[in-house]
Amino acid sequence: MLSHVLILGGTGEARRLAAALAARPGIRVTTSLAGRVSRPGAL
Predict the structure, then answer these.
(1) Distance of CA 14 to CAs 1, 24, 29, 36, Å?
(2) I want to staple 9 with a disulfide (CB 3.0 to 4.6 A). Which of 2, 3, 13, 31 is the partner?
């Protein structure tokens, strides 16, 4: 079964969490940025 996780991003911690979860089979990750980050890092 595919799980879908929404991460409210914008921090280094959220970016690391998204990367760790995306590496796991069966997990789909969506990261949402609030638009307050002028130059977001790669996800």
Answers:
(1) 24, 16, 11, 15
(2) 31
SS3 6: strand
Neighbours of 9 (CB within 10 A): 21
What are the residue boundaries of the structural domains of the chain, listed by start? 3-32
The whole-model pTM stands at 0.75
Q: Is residue 20 within 8 Å of residue 43, measured between CB atoms?
A: no
Mean pLDDT, 10 residues at a time, the chain of 43 residues? 92 92 96 77 66
What is the per-residue pLDDT for 34?
75
